[in-house]
Specification:
This protein is of the alpha/beta class. It has a single domain, classed as 3-Layer(aba) Sandwich (UDP-N-acetylmuramoyl-L-alanine:D-glutamate ligase). The protein has eleven helices and 15 strands. The strands form three sheets. The protein has a nine-stranded mixed sheet with strand order 6-4-1-10-11-12-13-14-15, sandwiched between helices. It has a four-stranded mixed sheet with strand order 3-2-8-9. Strand 8 and strand 9 form a beta hairpin. Helix 9 packs antiparallel against helix 10. The longest helix has 14 residues. The protein starts with a helix and ends in a 7-residue tail after the last helix.
Length: 321
């Protein structure tokens, strides 16, 4: 077979997307200023207001597409102003939204952030973000991707019961899987034993990893989690990140950047790590990529405004072996 014919055959067999994201859809309204809300109709002024792409899943999708990965998204929104805004912004960032379920009559969710230095308060209206189910993610859709990523587990209540089976279906069709739970508001961290066994790449932050394993030290938590999941990458905030694959351990410090806003930094970290993972990189290189993406994303307000391109992130990654 001629080389050109072999290339055409390979491209014909290759799924059209690298990553399928099954997630929630909502914009973020970010208010920044050194103020604290007070009831009794007390009006206070903030320094800035920004409406931008929100939701961990959508921010991740935009970050992955920014790096050049081919990303498709399934979630639920309405045909209201917030839903239309999110679909337009995701499409503009090369995220395929053709599988998004638009349900007239409902309301697209919204999160309002009050940023005050390194801290923030968040109010979220869930709207339709919790209504995606595992049955909505069909085998036909799965076959079009190499990898399935799920974030915001605790906000996606309709997806939770069927998620272990969804990951099992994905594996049977040749996809790898990843999960970023975010924080459990109940503090119970229950029903993860079966789910984590179906996760190839687990992406918690330090507090989530400690709570999930009921340990007090992050290395112990990483060891416990790596006995269940093949690859674990734990975000450590200002201390960078720790990753583990079997007995292989990597630690990468955070970049020194001018910190403006940490919204979405963990989701952009996830995008960087999965870029390396899907390209077969060594664990440490994937972690360098993740830390670079997460750190650089904090230099502007909002989760997507400062997400790096592949070239920008690679400046902080050692030569790929």
């Amino acid at each position: 077979m001629a080389l050109g014919d072999m290339k055409q055959e390979y491209m014909a067999q290759k799924p059209p997307f690298d990553i399928l994201v099954a997630g929630e859809i909502n914009p973020d309204l970010i208010l920044s200023g050194n103020v604290e809300p007070t009831f009794s109709q007390v009006e206070k002024l903030v320094d800035s207001a920004t409406l931008t792409v929100g939701s961990s899943s959508a921010i991740f999708a935009c970050g992955a597409a920014r790096l050049g990965l081919r990303v498709t998204f399934i979630g639920v929104c309405s045909d209201d102003s917030f839903g239309n805004y999110m679909l337009a912004e995701m499409n503009a960032r090369d995220v395929d939204t053709s599988s998004v379920l638009v349900r007239p009559g409902g309301q697209t969710g919204l999160s309002v952030f009050l940023n005050r230095g390194a801290d923030r308060a968040i109010l979220t209206f869930p709207g339709l973000m919790a209504t995606l189910t595992a049955a909505d993610v069909t085998d036909t859709l799965l076959r079009r991707s190499r990898h399935l990523h799920v974030a915001s587990y605790f906000l996606q209540t309709a997806l939770q019961p069927g998620l272990p089976e969804l990951f099992t279906r994905a594996h049977a069709l040749g996809l790898s899987t990843s999960l970023d739970t975010n924080w459990d508001p109940s503090g119970k961290w229950q029903n993860f034993d079966v789910l984590l066994q179906q996760v190839d790449v687990f992406l918690p932050n330090e507090n989530e990893a400690l709570a999930l394993t009921n340990t007090k030290e992050v290395k112990s938590a990483s060891q416990s989690l790596s006995e269940i999941c093949p690859v674990v990458a734990i975000k450590l905030g200002a201390d960078g990140a720790l990753a583990r694959r079997n007995r292989e351990i990597a630690h990468v410090p955070a970049l020194k950047v001018h910190l403006v806003d940490t919204v979405g930094a963990g989701d952009t970290f996830d995008a960087g790590f999965l870029y390396g993972y899907l390209n077969g990189w060594e664990l440490e290189n994937s972690l360098h990529m993740a830390v670079a993406c997460g750190s650089l994303s904090t230099s502007r307000v909002g989760g997507i405004a400062a997400q790096p391109t592949l070239e920008e992130a690679l400046e902080y990654v050692p030569p790929i072996r």
